[in-house]
């Protein structure tokens, strides 16, 4: 194989990799790229119970809370543990994106790092209805996220 052919093969492979990254990071069909707002398709949504994990770009996001017991008007504390390459991910920017079912306006809330890859957010859901939550993790060029559905109940 000549040197020129090797360069062509490498160039094609790099182009394929770059295109794959662009496609994977682009908004979904019908998505809205405005800051603070995002539309979510039915294919993106997943329903989970109490403990959750995702591996994305070598990042594991573990959310632990009393999700089945969330009641409107009461403060809920979400604890999330972030790992990368089997080590706690520290000094990351962790945000919770929250919105009500059927609404396009999303709110973002910064989580507080409590040490060793642990982050927490206290949040009060004001209305009993289905809500959506995405945990976003960013550090340098790394970005991972995990989506959840939360059914907020009426106060007893």
Automatic annotation (TrEMBL):
Residues 36-54 have a biased composition (Basic and acidic residues). Residues 31-54 are annotated as: Disordered. The keyword Signal applies. It holds the Pfam family YtkA. Residues 59-133 form the YtkA-like domain. It comes from Brevibacillus fulvus. Residues 1-24 form the signal peptide. The keyword Coiled coil does not apply. This is YtkA-like domain-containing protein. Keywords: Signal. It comes from the Bacteria.
